[in-house]
Amino acid sequence: MKFPSVTFLALALPLANGQKQQIPLNSPASLSIPLLGYGTWNLDKSNASEAVSYAIETGYRHIDCAAAYSNEKEVGRGIADGLKKAGLTRSEIWVTSKLWNDHHRPDLVVEGLTKTLSDLGVGYLDLYHMHWPVAESPTSGKTELGYLDARTSLPPRLCPRH
Question: What long-range pairs does 42-46 form, CB within 8 A, spacing at least 24?
Answer without folding.
Answer: 42/4, 42/69, 43/3, 43/4, 43/5, 43/69, 43/71, 43/74, 43/75, 44/4, 44/71, 45/70, 45/71, 45/74
